[in-house]
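Figure S4 source data
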Amino acid sequence: MTNLKLLSPDLREFRKEFNLNSTNTLTLTSPKILKNEKVSKAPTAVLYLKPSKTACSSAGSCFSMCLNTAGNPAYLKGKLACRSRRDLALRTNKDLFLRNLVIELFRFYSKNRNFDNVSARLNGVSDHKWMTIKVSITGYDSSHLLEKYGIAVTAGAYNNIFELFNSAYDYAKNMAVSKTFSFYDYSKHIDHNFELARRLGYHLTLSAGSLFDTLSTAIENGLNYAGVLNIKRNAPMPKFITVKGIKLPVIDGDLTDWRIGDSNQTTHVVGLRVKRTPNQTETMRRAFCIA
């Protein structure tokens, strides 16, 4: 008899090849993300992939200030190696990578289903256009999810991962998974289908440092605009700042990363204090920071 609580043989082999498992596919312990659970009561999982010209095709001044190399130097080498390994796994076999990702996201959700809000960021330090990436799950995957987590998802092809999660039903809570589980990201792309994102429940915050005019796009689409301010870590966040001649109210984006909870009645600046990265200079900060 097949043990459906085990992953399918092809996924087990894929995970072995790229040293992926349930402890290193998603990141759950980033200090900023932990604030989501403590401050916003919304446990959050993040997918960290290697940033690159392909993964971040709209990146401008942010490239030199990328937070990919931020954090404790003692852990940097291992952290970067893990992100590169995930990136290689995605580029080598996108189908298997996405199937593994789907299962790990449902695993994370199932461990936190007692919360009113659970979330995931698929772009930790990358900017992939996830709404355009198709994903499929097999009949075995579908049975595995039902047997192990009590979650029903129809096997087949979906236009994107958000569509798949919107179709999922949690028998443990007798409700759709999407009632409590949401996706959000920061992005520097102005060519997203923002209406589709709203229909899918994919919360986007546009950010500064792009090759393109993300501020105008944010205002046109009723989105918030994230930007880094060149102020000290403990300095208070200003109530308003003027960006490109436009005065906008400011949200302190360092209090929590859970952008879904931000006010969106009008465009706000999500202010983020500048973080130090290796070899950072004042010239780089001036080019990247919005104030």
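Figure S5 source data
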Amino acid sequence: MRLAQQLAVESDLVTADLVEVTEFPSLAQRYQVRAVPRTVVNESGSIAGALPEAEFVKAVIAAAQSR
């Protein structure tokens, strides 16, 4: 969560929304959240689990480019 927020602060090309899935079960179902953290990129790609910063950034870029 923190890394996604930091990316959004650093780049105008990134936005980050944090959602408590227990409060929004329809979103959890829509994005197939079965464990947290789960990062959804561009409505299509996702990253499951916590990653070190460098790996997280690479995973976000890869997910964004695979669109």
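Strands lie at 38-41, 45-48. The two ends are 22 Å apart (CA to CA).
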